[in-house]
């Protein structure tokens, strides 16, 4: 059964990659998912909202169906209960503080699923001196977080798999970001792979350093109760 599930997942990954590749030369659609901002005593980087909007345009519309909105906020402005609360990730309870993003499932009262991005934590892991000079690094860092949460939505509503949800979301994050960068920076494709690996190492380095300071500095999403 496990082998069958693994082979089925591999076939799905291949089909998804081919489908995204077929859309390579199509113009990016308008964003259908609203972007909302709620900050408390915090000034976000001026490029953040526009970067998120551009990244959302790179996601096939069908994968965003049913998603209510993407909320940009700062976790430092949340209530103490929210900052010290715990969520379940990879079958263990961790503190919410330090998470880069969350995927909120819908409820029986009609609340649709939505994504929450903690801008302050992402910005804290980026060097403002160089990230503004390298748009590709900016898209990579923000895209890995946003697409990870989009991956949770796809996994739950479009492509259910019998695997660890975080692993599935990670795979979707890599797939969507790879296609986005290939599409936007098609003219540098010969060097895009090493640049992409460099950006990935940068993000992993910051995540690892942050994790050493606070074990909760990684992506997580609550489980369905």
Automatic annotation (TrEMBL):
Alphabetized InterPro entries for the sequence: Zincin_1_sf
Superkingdom of the source species: Bacteria
Gene3D superfamilies tied to this protein: 3.30.2010.20
Protein name, per record: Uncharacterized protein
Originating organism: Koribacter versatilis (strain Ellin345)
């Amino acid at each position: 059964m496990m082998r069958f599930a693994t082979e089925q997942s591999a076939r799905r990954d291949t089909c998804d990659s081919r489908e995204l590749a077929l859309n390579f030369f199509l113009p990016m659609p308008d964003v259908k998912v609203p972007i909302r901002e709620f900050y408390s005593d915090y000034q976000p980087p001026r490029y953040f909202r526009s970067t998120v909007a551009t990244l959302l345009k790179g996601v096939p519309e069908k994968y965003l169906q049913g998603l209510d909105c993407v909320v940009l906020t700062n976790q430092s402005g949340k209530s103490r209960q929210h900052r010290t609360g715990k969520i379940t990730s990879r079958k263990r309870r961790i503190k919410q503080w330090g998470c880069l993003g969350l995927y909120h499932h819908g409820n029986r009262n009609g609340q649709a699923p939505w994504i929450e991005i903690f801008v302050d934590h992402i910005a804290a892991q980026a060097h403002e001196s160089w990230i503004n000079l390298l748009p590709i690094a900016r898209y990579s860092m923000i895209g890995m977080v946003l697409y990870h949460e989009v991956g949770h939505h796809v996994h739950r509503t479009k492509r259910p798999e019998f695997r660890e949800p975080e692993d599935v979301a990670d795979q979707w994050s890599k797939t969507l970001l790879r296609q986005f960068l290939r599409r936007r920076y098609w003219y540098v494709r010969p060097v895009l792979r090493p640049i992409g690996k460099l950006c990935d190492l940068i993000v992993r380095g910051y995540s690892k350093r942050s994790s050493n300071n606070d074990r909760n500095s990684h992506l997580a999403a609550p489980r369905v109760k």
